[in-house]
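Appendix B, record 7
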Amino acid sequence: MGLCFGWSLLLGIVCLASSCHLLLRGTLSSCTGVQWILSGFGGSLSLLLGIISLDFNRYGPISVLHSGTDVVIHYLLSRFFSTLSFFSERKLKVAYKNLRQVQTDFLLARLKANANTDYGRKHSFAKIKSIKDFVQMHPITTFNHYKDYIERVEGGEADVMIPGLPVLLALTTGTTGASKLIPFPKEHPREMFLKQMLITDQKIKKVHSNGHSLQRTLDLKYYTRWDKSKGGIPIGQFTGTPTAYGKSNITSAMRLTVTSPPAAFEIKTDQEIIYVHLLCALRDKNLGRIEACFAVTVYYSFVLLEKRWQELVNDIKLGRVNPELDIDDRIRNELNSHLVPMPHRARELAAEFSRGFSSISQRIWPHLNAIACATGGSFAAYYTTLKQKYCQCTPVVSPGFMSSEVVIGTNLWLESEKPEFIINSLVTFFRVRASRKRGPGPARD
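Structure tokens (predicted):
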């Protein structure tokens, strides 16, 4: 690639110099004019290829699982998402400096969009013109306030809480109580990606791999069991496998950026799906990141790795999925089509596992940049155990403070493992209420 850069740059300079020479000669004949155009175009193209080659040379290491085509496409996607993320992060920071105006605009836009729903009419959304109006006219609520409305949505009634019907009734994980159903409007997943997930994804790359990486990610997701409401609306956990509300949603970008092939995400049993995720990731010595919703998932994945490493090593050596796993034959055959025998990698792994599991993450994946998952609250104990045993030398960071219902905060300080967040005013309206503990008298907005 370095040689390609040198020749492209040299050719570009020569062609551009030639076109400048023709231009400076004064009067251009028709023939000379054509030569000038072709020379200039060729020079510009060669110069551009030289610059791209130079930029590409900064990227490394590269996933062992990548083909030549994968490398080129991954590079182009990386540059595109990096540019997109730059503007998204900039918008978030600017919004924080002008918080009240941004929050006012966000609230009024949402109220206007939902003014003609049944809920919007009953709560006079069309009459609300400011945050002060909203505070005076709409009470602070809990889930029970919306329960009857959500039951109507579940039955298939349109224009109840949002225009039309939601694309999904998201089932909460129940970490703070019983699971609940949250209606997702069609724009919600896109907003979550552009204004939250993309920002933190690129931030981790920038902080922990200098922003230049063509590595893959071990994406530790479980199978989502999808249901349908009485009205035919998909019901499932938004934090589960990459699916578009019951249908596969493994995008082309994901095929290049995660270690597991699409068939792996169709495995329905928890032990088997984590086993296969580990199997696929262990094949890639240049793994860049591990991702999961919660630290508990990462912890139990390493527990499974410690318990079953000999089976995993044998599968890598033979280039197959363990025949004892409870997996559908169609899925097994598709997974096996992606695997090839890797005896050398198997020997490397066996040698490291035989030495014990202290700091195992960095020993089996020497280029592992970070582990991204929720590490606070009830997951803090799992984070501590991970750092004490399996991941002593690997940064474990918490990219966001969020739930199925709402995005609360975005972590822009991912060089530190201490979770710190900036409130994400681009996707959530915040109504801050003074605590009663501050003194006598009623709580105030």
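Remarks on this record: The radius of gyration is 27 Å. Residues 1-14, 241-250, 440-445 have pLDDT under 50 and may be disordered.
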